[in-house]
Amino acid sequence: MNEIVKTQALKKYYKLGDNTVKALDGVDFTVREGEFVAIVGKSGSGKSTLLHMIGGLDYPTGGKVYVDGKQLYKLNKEQLAVFRRRKVGFVFQSFNLVPDLNVYENVVLPIELDGGHIDRDFVDEILRILKLEEKKEALPGTLSGGQQQRAAIARALANKPAILLADEPTGNLDTGSSHDVMGLLKMAAKRYHQTVVLITHDADIAQLADRIVQIEDGRIVKGSDVYAGE
Ligand SMILES: Nc1ncnc2c1ncn2[C@@H]1O[C@H](COP(=O)(O)OP(=O)(O)OP(=O)(O)O)[C@@H](O)[C@H]1O
Q: Which UniProt keywords apply (predicted)?
């Protein structure tokens, strides 16, 4: 089975005055294509840092990150930015939709900014699967939190990224909307064989993933490799 994400001895240290914070301290982590992985751990354990490293948002202190066969940190800043635009879909707790653009325009915006081809049939299908077809022309401000997050997920899926990374995507939603959003995200991921790595504090949400990876003090303590759950 294809390993789409692989980290080896990944380290990220932050210097704070005389202290060094070891946000990641030797992480070996693999995700295979089409897997839906939840990362859990206490606040400050290193979850967001790991997601940032996989998404090419920052450079590590040591170790390697491979995504879709590319070693990320051999890329310079511009190449890394292109990698992010083309290969990674991001979903955050705060939906980050552009308020003046309607749902459809928000969803296709990253493709337009990258000068890519918009596959309208595919975008329409995603909007249908995420139950947003009636809301294509609505502005984000007129939508519920769950609908806004589904629009953000549609945007992340629209250019068929190699990986979709979600940082607490249900953090701002009530329980009902959280399960709704997770269910639809999972369904879309299955349908497109989309690899998803998701951070959550919520054990119920994590249970919906194919595999749960637990991180403590910058190290993975459970679920690190793809065969752990089998
Ligand atoms: N830019 C930074 N500069 C200094 N320290 C940082 C920076 N980013 C993260 N850290 C530290 O690295 C550690 C890991 O942070 P990280 O955000 O990855 O944790 P987390 O598990 O995602 O936490 P939370 O669940 O609260 O979001 C923490 O001690 C944090 O304070």
A: ATP-binding, Nucleotide-binding, Transport
